[in-house]
Amino acid sequence: MNTRPNMSIPCGLALLAVCLFIRYQIGKRRFNRRGIGGVQHFSGYDRSVIVTLLERLLLIIANSCGLAGLFLLAIAGFNHLKF
Q1: Is Transmembrane among the key words of this record (predicted)?
Q2: How would you label 55-69 residue by residue, b for 16+ Cβ within 10 Å and e otherwise?
Q3: Which residues contact 72 (CB under 8 A, 6 or more apart)?
Q4: Using CB atoms within 10 A of its CB, is residue 81 exposed (0-12), middle (13-18) or buried (19+)?
C-alpha cells in the first residue's frame, strides 16, 4: 500500500495564517494613520496613492490566500469522508 502524507491540511492552515497576518498588519497600519477626525493622514498625495494601491493589492493577495486555504481544507475534509 502506497501511503504518502497529505499536505493539504498544513498548507491550508499556512495559507489561512498568511491571510490573517496580512489583513491584521494592514488594518493596524490603517488604524495608526487615522487622526482625530477618523480620516487617514499621509505626508503627501503621492504617498497616499502608492500606499493605498499597495494595500489594496496586498488585500487581494491575502484574500486569495485565504480562499485557497479554505479550498485545501475543504478538499482534505471531503477526502477524509471517503464516500
Answers
A1: yes
A2: beeeeeebeebbebb
A3: 8, 9, 11, 12, 15
A4: exposed
How is the chain split into domains, by residue range? 10-19+44-83
SS3 15: helix
pTM of the model: 0.83
Q: What is the pLDDT of residues 8-67, one digit of tens each?
A: 889 999 999 999 999 999 999 999 999 999 898 999 999 999 999 999 999 999 999 999
| Cell representation of residue 32 | 495608526
As given in the structure block, the three cell numbers for residue 41 are 493622514
Question: Could you tell me which of 15, 16, 18, 12 has the C-alpha nearest to residue 80?
Answer: 12
